[in-house]
Task: inverse folding
């Protein structure tokens, strides 16, 4: 069992109840999906650590996150930063899990580097997420998700 961070903002004069509830709702809606994405990129322990660290960072800056123009995009950036900082050559326990002929891990060492967002979207697609759900998780406009996904499909 991997304990996560405390998902409740402590009551204080500077933190209204609505802000606490917004964080708790965001956590409830995204945690499972963030963990699935992290597990596609990292071993189980590192995946849990990355997601816990991401939610801890979001909790610490929640008022700024929720008041930003796109909280989902900001949160996705925090998550992917945590995952990439832990990636250091590890892979999921079962190795690379291709889906429909595509790798969830990204391009091989002899392929050119890919746009990180396109790589994220390919991983989400390999996990079975629709373009609409991927847009919701990443905070990207649906049109951009479809464009990057189509561009990735043409180059794979």
Result:
């Amino acid at each position: 069992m991997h304990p996560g961070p405390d998902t409740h903002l402590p009551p204080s004069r500077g933190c209204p109840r609505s802000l606490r509830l917004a964080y708790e709702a965001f956590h409830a809606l995204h945690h499972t999906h963030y963990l699935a994405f992290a597990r596609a990129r990292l071993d189980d322990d590192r995946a849990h650590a990355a997601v816990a660290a991401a939610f801890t960072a979001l909790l610490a800056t929640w008022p700024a996150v929720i008041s930003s123009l796109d909280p989902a995009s900001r949160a996705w950036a925090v998550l992917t930063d945590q995952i990439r900082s832990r990636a250091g050559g590890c892979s999921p326990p079962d190795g690379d899990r291709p889906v429909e002929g595509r790798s969830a891990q990204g391009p091989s060492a002899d392929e050119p580097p890919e746009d990180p967002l396109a790589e994220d979207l390919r991983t989400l697609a390999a996990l079975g997420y629709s373009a609409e759900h991927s847009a919701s998780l990443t905070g990207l406009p649906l049109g951009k998700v479809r464009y990057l996904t189509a561009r990735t499909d043409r180059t794979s």
